[in-house]
Write the structure tokens for this entry.
Amino acid sequence: MTDGEEDDGPPLVARVLQFDRNSGELPDDYRDSLDQGACGELAKSLGSYLQSFASESKVLADVEVEGNRISVGRDDGTELMIAIYGPEIFEITRWPNPADAVEDGSMRFDFAPELESEVAVTLARRYVVNGTIEQENA
């Protein structure tokens, strides 16, 4: 650490989850060329859906929407963040409960970039019910 730097906690380690895209490759600048209005409306719609899904599933979840981003917090201290960059371009980050997240001196989190809508909704629903975006073994 150099002068002027602060220790903001343990280093972050991402576990990146990749999914096949059926709708083709994305342009390199998809984050920069987003339609704020359309993505914001999509975020509101998905946020409302997730809040309803949580209620129907009898799960306490706090859903907040700001612009093209959705945050879903559970009572176990975990949080799911969804960024929408287009109708078929979603990114999901699942943050663990900070109290028990440090493993080997690092905080590990899940990141799933460049998702299509069907996969993003499936992962978000899985998180609401189970607190994880991983599929549980049968």
